[in-house]
């Protein structure tokens, strides 16, 4: 099989340049380049040529193929450019207009606070732990020195998950204290952020689901001074400056002594809306880990001691973000969430 390559190529180029669309180009590609096309036939015919002619015939066929492929690509690009140009000139396309607005998501204020705080605690050498939301009665109450008749166990407050009352939706993040004691080698520091659940009638300051962040530090000869110092470091991490703190007595079965820790209002000196004109902000409940809790976690209270605290994440986010109804937090209303 012989063809005049120059004439064939000129003809192919002319037909390609005149092809009106992609389908026509594909058709020409089949006709010239594919195995069953012209180049394919030329190559297939080579073995039947005189050995001396084979090299030249092979080269010629491949050159023809290359040239046709390039012509096809050029035409494809030209068609695409023309299509885009036409679109630009068509119905009111204005390349100077700003692009259509993009709906941007944002992190939930609780997520923002959790990330910020865990970052600070992480820098202070704390592990960041997770615990189950469906918790055993043992971890949620018993191991935390909350006796069977303690009011916190009242069915009013606790969502029970089974008839025997063995499983509950955790009512606080404190059970992670016990799980930390079981899993970490003392001495250690750990925080555990997460959701907690209480069976309450909801109103502006009560919600059945909210967030806390538990903290526990275990070591030897841990005292209230360590607790105060840790909380001051935390406050410096959040507000970038020294804030005065004070302790008031508080009762929680799993700490002894137990406290409410207040911090000087970071927003004023004379009293403002956030501190309710008192210049103090109720920051968190805390205390020294009760010996019974250490025992529940398998530690000898004569050797080990520690402090614990329970940050009310939802409450603090509300306080610092000026949110007046806790139900907004998990209400899922986009108009609320878009503000953060
Ligand atoms: N778990 C308690 C609650 O939800 C808060 C709490 C109080 C946590 C004192 C602590 C603590 O770690 O030391 O009401």
Describe the fold and architecture.
With 340 residues, the protein is an alpha+beta fold. It is built from eleven helices and nine strands. The radius of gyration is 37 Å and the shape is elongated. The chain has helices at residues 5-18, 22-32, 38-45, 51-89, 109-123, 137-140, 175-183, 224-239, 291-296, 313-321, 334-337, and strands spanning 127-128, 134-136, 167-169, 188-197, 209-219, 245-249, 255-264, 280-289, 305-311. Helix 1 (5-18) runs parallel beside helix 4, helix 2 (22-32) packs antiparallel against helix 4 (51-89) and helix 5 crosses helix 10 (313-321). The chain is 40% helix and 18% strand. The chain has two domains: 5-88; 109-337, BirA Bifunctional Protein, domain 2, CATH 3.30.930.10. Strands 1-4-5-9-8-7-6 form a seven-stranded mixed sheet, sandwiched between helices. Strands 2-3 form a two-stranded antiparallel ribbon. A hairpin with a 5-residue loop joins strand 6 and strand 7. The model has no long low-confidence stretch (mean pLDDT 93). Bound molecules: 3,4-dihydroxyphenylalanine. 3,4-dihydroxyphenylalanine (DAH) binds at residues 172, 174, 214, 252, 255, 258, 285-287, 308-310.
- In the CATH scheme, the class of the largest domain would be Alpha Beta
State mean pLDDT (0 to 100 scale): 93
CATH-level-2 architecture of the largest domain: 2-Layer Sandwich
> If strands are numbered along the chain, what order do they take across the biggest sheet?
1-4-5-9-8-7-6
Q: Please tell me how large the radius of gyration is.
A: 37 Å
Low-confidence stretches: none
